[in-house]
Amino acid sequence: MKNILGKENISYEDEALFLIAEKADGAMRDALSFTDSVLNFSPECISREAAYKVLNVVDTQKYFDLVSCLLEKDIFNTILKCNEILAEGYDVINLAYGLLN
User: Fold this and answer.
1) Residue 46 forms beta bridges with which residues?
2) 96 compared with 46, residue with greater pLDDT
3) What is the structure's pLDDT at 99?
4) How far is C-alpha 99 from the geometric centre of its chain's CA atoms?
5) pTM over 0.85
6) pLDDT at site 76
7) Closest Cα to residue 57, out of 26, 19, 84?
8) pLDDT of residue 95 exceeding 90
9) How far apart are CA 46 and CA 66, in angstroms?
10) Which of 32, 38, 64 lies closest to 52, judged by CA?
11) 10, 47 contact by CB (below 8 A)
């Protein structure tokens, strides 16, 4: 993808491309489709933030914060963090899957 984006003079962040590749699960056609979707949302650059939003993937920092609350056995903040993530429109199945990963 870096080769294609370089030839098209499209700027990108490495973390965004990693996220796209991970979401595509090894399928180049899917990766290009996801890249196109992110570019439609954010035409000036394939940014980390745009990729997370367009691909409907919870930011890894939110997972780290949530796991930290779990490890500290902080029930209140664990529930609060889960509610914040779900309030942003993420699906509970995606949240659970992300935690398992």
Assistant:
1) 12
2) 46
3) 86
4) 13
5) no
6) 96
7) 19
8) no
9) 27
10) 38
11) no
- Residue 47: both structure tokens together: 């940014």
3-state secondary structure the chain: CHHHHHHCCCCECHHHHHHHHHHHCCCHHHHHHHHHHHHHHCCCCECHHHHHHHCCCCCHHHHHHHHHHHHCCCHHHHHHHHHHHHHCCCCHHHHHHHHHC
Q: What is the pLDDT of residues 16-67, one digit of tens each?
A: 999 999 889 889 999 999 999 999 998 889 999 899 889 988 888 899 999 9
The residues facing 12 across adjacent strands are: 46
In sequence order, the β-bridge partners of residue 56 are none
> Which two tokens mark 4?
């294609």
Question: 36 with 54: CB under 8 angstroms?
Answer: no
**Which tokens sit at 32?**
């290009």
Q: Which residue has the higher pLDDT, 64 or 95?
A: 64
Q: Tell me, what amino acid is at 56?
A: N
- The amino acid at residue 14 is D
- 48 and 61 Cβ atoms separated by less than 8 Å: no
